[in-house]
Amino acid sequence: MIVAFLLCAGCLAPSRVPGTDTTTSVTTPVTPALVSDTVGSDDRNSSDTAEQIKNDIKASYLSQKKYIPTKDINKHFLTIAFSEYNGVIMRREYRHSITISLFGAYSAEDKKEVEEFITKFNRISKTQKLYPFLKNDGNDADLWINIFPNRQLHDLQKDQIGNDQMYYTEYDSLFSDTIIYSVNGTEQIFVNADLPPEKRRHYLIRALTYWLGITGEALDEDSFFHPANTDKPDLAEQDWKAIMILYGPVVKYNMTMSDVKNRLYLGSS
Known about the structure:
- This protein is α/β, with parallel strands linked by helices.
- Helices cover 35% and strands 10% of the residues.
- It has one domain.
- Strands 1, 2, 3, 4, 5 and 6 form a 6-stranded mixed sheet that branches.
């Protein structure tokens, strides 16, 4: 089975080895390397294209905007913000803008996909911002996104088991062979570079949104978060509206579904 992506989550539920009742630890933290100086981008190069990205996003948003009843948005939010892995709101809450680094065999399109997501997220989020440019130095980032070949991901799983400093949990029902890693307190996402481009970019953003707290699957077939849409790289309008709720003033970290329903006036529906 192909590893779609590996995602490190420091604040999710305690990790266990698949098929056992014991927690697995590991030793050697992963130290990713940049592919090349021409693929990575510093803040100056990123700022050159930032305005164009913003204009493209605005034009795309205005062309796709449609009316969706508030009640439908609220219900959609409940399906993707909660899952069997978390029964409470698990959004990120940092005192600073979250910084992200991109490593490995990523393409210009992969990088653009992440930057566009960051721009859109910052436009709608009221409680947390993402640093607008990707960081070159992973040690200076809150989240590392690693795009590695499939074989390297399998070797990573095999080599890291048995160590005291890394924990993982396998979530078979969410994503095929997905591993969530926490390395010495460092948050890391691993994406399979051997996937077709559209699917790789889907899992790149899916891993990032999972890390941000969207752990469930959508019932809406048009949603990015529907399990059948693994070749869809872009979030639908209802998905962005749900993220707006997650990172808005109404819901709070660690709220239960009952708490959220009361806040959104959904009652027992």
